[in-house]
């Protein structure tokens, strides 16, 4: 097996596609995408077409994590909505094929921005891209979940309370050393949870610019990717996820906008982005946004702690990157405490 294929049995995938994917014809070449820490993702290249395969990672996994079957379901359900997604081709839940569940989807020919400052484009393009982020986010939260068959996609009840409990358990299960900042943040969030206001929409769970594919020459969003954390929940959590990333340091590691002259770059302020979202959804205000923002920092800290644990256990998708990310857990926790204080 080649280095690029590292955790994928290429011969097994090729045999499976020849049987289950009409029109598939090899030979098959595989290239592993370097970004993404949760579910290993591969580009499948044949003489006739390019596809994408996304699988659960190998090894022992946390319960309910890496749910690629849910990713497949939600993207297929969104195919005819205003939320752009890649076309889903097939889902394989037979672990005997490559050792874990995987799905195959359309390859989107577009561009991806890892850095929200988008240094390779001009101010007008940056403005258009971020406006598309806002448009798609509002569209996502206006999807009729019952009409698209996702009414049972998440449990009922207070979303923040449920998620805080879930991610606290996930964090404790992947804890490698005591981090006082995380303990303080968990305790503070438990005390700050607002009453449930009844809003119940589809939520992406990790909505940010690097999980989106845009037109190569324009600003149109062609697909939203990485739906592993999607569920039925509170829409403000997705909005807070965007603002959370922007509050981080700029550059390769933080991928944020802290200290950046946004106006000079054609980028909106946090408040302008929130107001545009409210206009699109017909909202007059957003209550308890600081709690949603704090929770976003907490959840991301818990996620990267899990990434670090997988790296230490030897089954991370990108071990070197995973070890680097793990150092940011205390930083995210401190940001979470600061957000809660307003």
From TrEMBL:
<dbReference type="InterPro" id="IPR002575">
    <property type="entry name" value="Aminoglycoside_PTrfase"/>
</dbReference>
<protein>
    <submittedName>
        <fullName>Phosphotransferase family protein</fullName>
    </submittedName>
</protein>
<dbReference type="InterPro" id="IPR052898">
    <property type="entry name" value="ACAD10-like"/>
</dbReference>
<dbReference type="InterPro" id="IPR011009">
    <property type="entry name" value="Kinase-like_dom_sf"/>
</dbReference>
<dbReference type="Pfam" id="PF01636">
    <property type="entry name" value="APH"/>
</dbReference>
<dbReference type="InterPro" id="IPR041726">
    <property type="entry name" value="ACAD10_11_N"/>
</dbReference>
<feature type="domain" description="Aminoglycoside phosphotransferase">
    <location>
        <begin position="30"/>
        <end position="253"/>
    </location>
</feature>
